Amino acid sequence: MGGFRFVVPVLLFGVAACSSPSPPPPAPPADCARYESGPVEPALGHRAVVLTLTNCGTAERAVSGYPDVQVLGPEGEVLDVRVERGSSYMAIDPGPGTFALAPGKSLVTVVSWANTVTDGEVVTGSALTVASKPGEAPRQLPVETDLGTTGEITVTAWATEPAR
Fold first, then answer.
1. Euclidean distance between CA atoms 34 and 103, whole angstroms
2. Domain containing residue 144: CATH number
3. By C-alpha distance, which of 128, 127, 119 is closest to 149?
4. What does the pLDDT look like over 8-58, one tens digit per residue?
5. Which residues, listed in sequence order, are joined to residue 43 by a DSSP beta bridge?
């Protein structure tokens, strides 16, 4: 019984490196902040979203108190919405603290609101802006806020995890 034998030619060759090695990537800045938003959680006409601040820099980042948060409309305009600090139906405020946020570490805050509709104009936001410290340029996060006619959000202080 004859069998077939296949011979596969193998070609080996070397390539000389003619170019210089690529430069190393730039080091991350000492002061760098990344903001992320979780999903909007609903409960009996109330809503909440957890915002996370991560230190993506190479140095500790001083963070204290409450974030600066604003609600933006569909065209990016700042809406006339009151920002209260403290606890709400959806979140317990741990109270203001001071943190030396190490590189790679994160803090959270909870933004909550009620979707109550009574008299007046219904307000719906398309995004939130957040800044962790005075003078920092706010970052925009796509978070839809159906505020009803309340015109108000509540923000908890920065914490290592949401209070329960």
1. 11
2. 2.60.40
3. 119
4. 444 444 444 456 677 777 776 778 999 999 999 999 999 999 999 999 999
5. 46
Other C-beta atoms lying within 10 Å of the C-beta of residue 64: 13
The pLDDT tens digits of the residues spanning 67-118 come to: 999 999 999 999 999 999 999 999 999 999 999 999 999 999 999 999 999 9
Dist CA 108 CA 124 (whole Å)? 23
- In a domain, residue 161? The reply is no
Which range marks the domain in which residue 42 is found? 33-155
Integer-rounded Cα Rg, in Å, for the chain is: 25
Whether 81 maps to a domain, the answer reads yes
Output phi, psi for 91, to 5 deg.
Answer: -150, 145
Domain count, the chain: 1
d(CA 106, CA 56) in angstroms, rounded, equals: 9
Nearest residue to 143 via CA among 61, 56, 62, 81: 81
DSSP states of 97-141: -EEEE-TT-EEEEEEEEE----SS--EEESEEEEESSTTPPPEEE
**Which tokens is 88 given?**
């709400």
